[in-house]
Specification:
Chain lengths: 204, 156
């Protein structure tokens, strides 16, 4: 008796099924890559603790009005000029050479009435309660840009690479070379221009 | 009788499509893995502001807070900015329990290094965000990130 071979399953429609599924997942996929501004909030303070006294000249006050008007040190300013103004303030290094607290890497104007040292310079922002979040981010962005500019300048001077580029490479796991060493260098740069941004209660 | 039978006719041989399903399956698996099916519906407007000094968000250690005016389908709630955590609207005094509840969904070893991601519509009042941040300070969740859309130069 002739042996009957097992009938083959027709696999021609397999591709169709797979295509159907493929198209479904293609449509529903959103490859999300969220990016944003990272910030650390100050820890909650008990109300009975006296806040430390900060000299007026070490404070850089930015006030955002209801309609997005920008007041920097009590003067109306355009958002485009904020970065320059912040850089000038942070990089001032007002203590003269030879005295304690002199900033030997600052390249600013050395104005005695502006900030003493980048570590002491504090930028403080007060947003009107009804000002939009867009303006809030815009101001924060420009201030971070000022810090990044200074950090990049110092890292190029000391190590020959840009702070922001190396940091991004490490964050994304693309850094080639000694990561620990690079991280150490990053923290040195960070210490030279520590991010000191504060916010004032909009109700006060 | 010839041993090697000549194929009759000069027809083009059909292209073998047997490996087509394999290729398609490969693509399929890629998209299946890459797909994130949205767990929470965002119920507020989400026109994110733009900035150019951004850093990457680490998704596995983030909890999201959405804020903005109620979106399409929630118009009856008015036009005042609302906060959404998880999939529900919360009032300002409920932010702390809601955010701690969200944190429980993270992997254990990352719970201490949690980062709070703000996805806030650009028309929201910044006062509302300030209030949320005060709540976060009380809950001792100090790392925050404001999610924005990336642009080449934000000031134009």
């Amino acid at each position: 008796m002739a042996r009957r071979s097992a009938p083959e399953i027709n696999a021609g429609s397999m591709a169709d099924i797979a295509f159907l599924l493929l198209i479904f997942f293609l449509v529903t996929t959103t490859i999300e890559k969220d990016r944003g501004l990272i910030r650390s909030l100050p820890p909650d303070q008990p109300t009975d603790v006296e806040p430390p006294i900060i000299k007026e000249k070490n404070l850089f006050v930015v006030i955002v009005g209801k309609d997005g008007d920008l007041f920097v040190e009590d003067e109306l300013m355009d958002i485009k000029d904020l970065k320059e103004a912040a850089i000038a303030f942070l990089d001032n290094g007002g203590v003269p050479a030879g005295q304690e607290g002199h900033c030997d890497y600052c390249q600013g104007a050395r104005d005695a009435s502006s900030s003493d040292y980048p570590d002491k310079a504090i930028v403080t922002v007060k947003n009107h309660r009804e000002s939009s979040f867009e303006n809030y981010i815009l101001v924060q962005n420009e201030l971070v840009a000022a810090y990044n500019f200074l950090r990049n300048r110092e890292s190029v001077r000391l190590y020959g690479w840009k702070y922001t580029e190396v940091k991004a490479a490490i964050d994304e796991g693309l850094y080639t070379g000694d990561e620990d060493k690079a991280k150490e260098k990053l923290s040195i740069i960070k210490k030279m221009y520590p991010l000191k941004l504060s916010e004032i209660d909009p109700n006060s | 009788m010839s041993k090697f039978k000549q194929k009759k006719g000069g027809d083009l041989p059909a292209v073998n499509t047997a490996s087509l399903p394999d290729i398609v399956f490969m693509l399929l698996f890629f998209f299946m893995v890459a797909t994130v099916l949205r767990k929470n519906d965002v119920k507020v407007a989400q026109g994110l502001p733009t900035s150019d000094q951004t850093e990457k968000l680490k998704k596995d250690r983030s909890v999201y807070i959405y804020a903005g005016k109620p979106g399409l389908g929630y118009k009856e709630l008015g036009t005042e900015g609302k906060i959404q955590i998880g999939d529900k609207f919360v009032n300002i005094d409920e932010v702390q329990p809601a955010i701690l509840e969200e944190r429980e969904k993270l992997r254990d070893e990352l719970k201490d290094r949690v980062m709070v991601a703000f996805k806030v519509d650009k028309e929201t009042n910044s006062g509302l965000i300030y209030d949320v941040k005060q709540e976060l300070r009380e809950a001792n969740l100090l790392k925050v990130i404001y999610v924005t859309t990336q642009s080449e130069d934000a000031v134009e």
